[in-house]
Design a protein that fits this description.
Strand content: 25-35%
Radius of gyration: 19 Å
Number of strands: 17
Helix content: 10-25%
Structural class: alpha+beta
Order of helices and strands: HEEHHEEHEHHHEEEEEEEEEEEE
Number of helices: 7
């Protein structure tokens, strides 16, 4: 059904890949071979980690469709190449999940081995304040959905600072499950507060978007509450949701 010939030379590479890294450029988008390879990777359920190479490029058509809603690694600024490579390795590690242990066994460089060690999730660092998103340990009762744990920002990462991304194929909606407590991150637009709870429904839906204005090579993102239609930020030391994106809505994935 994929239309791929058994003798196609790239077929074994795609079928045995853990991750495919498409380069987002006009030449890549215009290439029939690249289109064939990425479409087949998608048919094989191989994870994508897109790399933005060309400044001011916007993927469209087949490439835009396949990479819609995906975080891309920023290689637009050559001055930050080393940082971009480190971010790419970390994103590949996250995309591989439990399979990353297979990679770590084959790595000889101790420095590289540290990068491909299986992680317990991602931490979100608020760029303006350099603080980590974390659960407080405080539990409150909500009349409609039972118990909820409250969130705060901390100076250093804690056990509850790490989040596992849960996402269905073909959907831009993301759920964030706390690695330590297994609670799902949510936003209540009525009370304007962030929380976690055991199950996920509409208020626990998020969109995670690449911050296109950041050219540091780090994994800079914007976090949007899909149900409450607010951007997550920190103001006056408190987590809050705001209507419009501003410089204080930016977070680094750690």
């Amino acid at each position: 059904s994929s239309g791929i010939n058994a003798e196609w030379p790239l077929r074994p590479g795609v079928e045995n890949a853990m991750v495919v890294c498409p380069f987002l450029t006009e030449k890549y988008q215009a290439s029939k071979n690249c289109k064939k390879e990425l479409n087949y990777s998608d048919a094989c359920d191989v994870a994508f980690v897109p790399c933005m190479i060309q400044p001011n490029f916007k993927a469209k058509g087949w490439l835009g469709l396949l990479t819609a809603g995906m975080l891309w690694i920023d290689f637009r600024n050559p001055d930050n190449f080393e940082q971009s490579v480190e971010s790419l390795v970390k994103e590949i590690t996250a995309a591989c999940g439990d399979k990353v242990a297979e990679i770590a066994l084959k790595v000889t460089s101790e420095e590289t081995k540290q990068l491909v060690t299986p992680q317990k999730g991602r931490a979100f660092i608020h760029i303006s304040t350099n603080k980590y998103l974390a659960e407080t340990g405080e539990v409150i009762t909500h009349w409609g959905s039972g118990s909820r744990s409250t969130l705060t920002v901390t100076d250093t990462p804690e056990d509850t600072s790490f989040w596992v991304q849960v996402k269905e194929k073909g959907s831009e909606i993301v759920f964030f499950k706390n690695y330590a407590t297994q609670g799902y991150l949510g936003y209540d637009p009525n009370g304007d507060y962030i929380y976690t709870k055991p199950d996920h429904y509409g208020a626990e839906e998020w969109l995670l978007m690449t911050d296109e204005n950041d050219d540091t090579g780090k994994r800079a993102v914007i976090i949007f509450a899909n149900y409450g239609k607010k951007y997550l930020t920190v103001r006056d030391g408190e987590l809050t949701g705001v209507d419009d994106v501003s410089t204080d809505c930016r977070w680094y994935l750690h």
